[in-house]
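Title: Comparing notes on inverse folding

I've been comparing how different people in this forum approach sequence design from structure. To keep things fair, I'm posting one structure and asking everyone to reply with a full sequence. Here's the target:
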């Protein structure tokens, strides 16, 4: 057992920018800050400097945000130098690494501070590589960790065989910030969702998130529910492909791409949603849905979820209790799953709220502190 004193958290995402890894890192920092001294080093993609400054003013802990330069090598060199400066400035007892870039820093950190305890948090993609050089770099980085934490059983399955039985390895599910949504509940409705039923996916529009799977099922769903509407919230990174498929299937009038909506405005969106859709792809080589935090966030408002089997979503949904797990590529299963949720929504909704509260960050942080203390 190690004594926790000063903690350094290095994350590849952080609010006010979007992303589940950032949401996860922020909430860990909020919880650990209640008991320990913690500093955060992070990246600020998709957020303006002004937004970051305003966000950082509200936090008690120090947040240092790396800049991104035109030349990628310069970007990474500056980050490494700044990490070294932070390590030499304070005597950190523990360092938490979340995300791909952070994990690769384990070797450098250990070479500078041999006695520091390293905790790696895995979300999925950082463990997937086809390039042999990257595989070796990741394996070498993993060997430097004192504690390994995966956000789901699915993510844990990606660990190389030699680390599968590592003694200080944990699976800790994502948590949900109940206070965040309680506060934002008071805000006015900025976006009104149309349709009946109203389906929602929260997450960047990408192949991994699988919005395309619901689009493929819309022609059949429209026959069952003529007023149905699919709402997509998140960075429209690959929205052109989605729109092209919708036009091809003649269902464009049944979908709305809202773009990125800040977390503090999501309560009004969830309050208007009938079913959360998370049909993430399970057959992509270098992408993995580690958990799906939006599922728990929707559950806070009693919204059941339809999610993919064979992904980390299996840890986020209790099948036929808080939602339904299906084959995301089966139009028949998608249609039947939505039908089952709508017909049993009252029971599923009640269970979903209970499930979300069980996953409050106050509860989840206890597991994190126990795991970190094992380092």
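Reply #1:
Here's my take.
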């Amino acid at each position: 057992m190690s004594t926790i004193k000063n903690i350094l958290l290095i994350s590849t995402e952080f609010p006010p920018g979007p992303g589940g890894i950032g949401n996860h890192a922020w909430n860990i920092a909020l919880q650990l800050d209640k008991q320990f001294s913690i500093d955060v080093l992070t990246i600020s993609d998709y957020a303006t400097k002004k937004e970051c400054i305003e966000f950082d003013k509200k936090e008690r802990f120090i947040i240092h945000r790396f800049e991104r330069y035109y030349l990628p090598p310069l970007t990474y060199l500056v980050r490494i130098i700044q990490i070294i400066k932070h390590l030499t400035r304070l005597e950190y007892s523990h360092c938490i690494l979340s995300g791909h870039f952070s994990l690769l820093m384990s070797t450098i950190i250990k070479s500078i501070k041999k006695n520091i305890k390293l905790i790696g948090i895995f979300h999925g993609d950082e463990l997937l590589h086809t390039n042999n050089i990257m595989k070796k770099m990741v394996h070498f980085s993993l060997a430097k960790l004192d504690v390994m934490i995966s956000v789901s059983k699915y993510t844990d399955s990606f660990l190389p065989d030699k680390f599968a039985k590592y003694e200080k390895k944990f699976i800790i599910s994502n948590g949900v910030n109940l206070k965040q949504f309680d506060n934002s509940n008071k805000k006015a409705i900025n976006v009104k969702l149309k349709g009946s039923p109203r389906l929602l996916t929260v997450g960047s529009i990408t192949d991994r998130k699988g919005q395309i799977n619901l689009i493929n099922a819309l022609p059949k769903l429209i026959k069952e529910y003529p007023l149905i509407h699919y709402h997509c919230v998140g960075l429209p990174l690959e929205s052109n492909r989605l729109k092209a498929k919708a036009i091809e299937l003649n269902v464009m009038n049944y979908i709305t791409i809202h773009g990125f909506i800040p977390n503090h405005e999501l309560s009004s969106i969830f309050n208007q949603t009938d079913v959360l859709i998370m049909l993430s792809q399970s057959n992509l080589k270098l992408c993995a849905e580690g958990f799906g935090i939006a599922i728990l966030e929707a559950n806070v408002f009693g919204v059941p979820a339809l999610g993919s089997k064979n992904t980390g979503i299996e840890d986020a949904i209790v099948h036929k209790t808080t939602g339904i797990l299906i084959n995301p590529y089966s139009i028949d299963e998608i249609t039947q799953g939505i039908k089952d949720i709508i017909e049993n929504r009252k029971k599923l909704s009640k269970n979903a709220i209970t499930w979300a509260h069980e996953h409050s960050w106050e509860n989840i942080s206890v597991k994190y502190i126990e795991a970190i203390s094992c380092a």
